[in-house]
Amino acid sequence: MAPYQSHGFIGQEIHTWIKNTKQTHKALFILAEKINADCYESLGSLTIDSGSLRQTLISCLFPRCLELFQATYILVEHGMSPSSNIALRALLEAMFVLCATAKDDDALEAYVIEGERERLRVTRKLLADKDSTLPVDRLEVMRRIQTELGEKMKKQKARKFSTEDFAKKAGLHGWYLTAYTRTSWAVHTTIRDIERYLVLDEEENLKSIRFIPTDEDAVDVLSVACNTMIISLGAFLSLFEADTTIADVHGKELEILMTKAV
Fold first, then answer.
1. CB of 111 within 8 A of CB of 88?
2. What is the model's pTM?
3. CB 207 within 8 A of CB 200
4. Among 73, 195, 220, 245, which residue's Cβ finds the most Cβ atoms within 10 Å?
5. pLDDT tens figures, 6-31
6. Within a 13 Å sphere around the CA of 49, how many CA atoms are in the beta-carbon half?
């Protein structure tokens, strides 16, 4: 524990931890790197129809998934369990939206309109700030935006989609009920999640606070992240009517690897 007391996850000592962790779970980390490389190759090999809202949107959502996948990988290798779960949750949300909007018109429309709703919410909050230091001309522009967006939203008929709605449209509701729900503890900093920092003696009295790297759920988090990225890759390739074999192959590789791990 001592080497981490001064600088924690950003100190030089963490590099030894990373090396050892990647060696312990070598096969899974190698597979994650292969998936990552093939995602990059797929992203660069397809031609986007700029006139297609769906293709343009999915072509933006896919690199978002890839970035969150890489963030999860980095946090797992550093032994940052709560943070890796938070990144995983964001990755799962991105997958739900990607897979839903790739094949469902209602989900596509709802996602686009939600962007306008969010602009309206932010504008209203900024205008409600009585201590705002924004210049008068800027505030006038924001009031005009609020009026325009408000009128536009009244005309929109698409209903608001929740994360669960996107998961259902994606055909991934089971993922929402299991993997996604599991990450809630870390995201919302629940009492159950922060108990990890307590060190108790035999009589369950507080002995110390422990704040060190851990690989206690490294396999669970990284394997789910890999599976999420494989599904996202398959949906991405399918939209462009490209060969999805590489996604299928990685799916089989992950299945075999996790079967051996049990």
1. no
2. 0.86
3. yes
4. 73
5. 778 888 889 999 999 999 999 999 99
6. 8
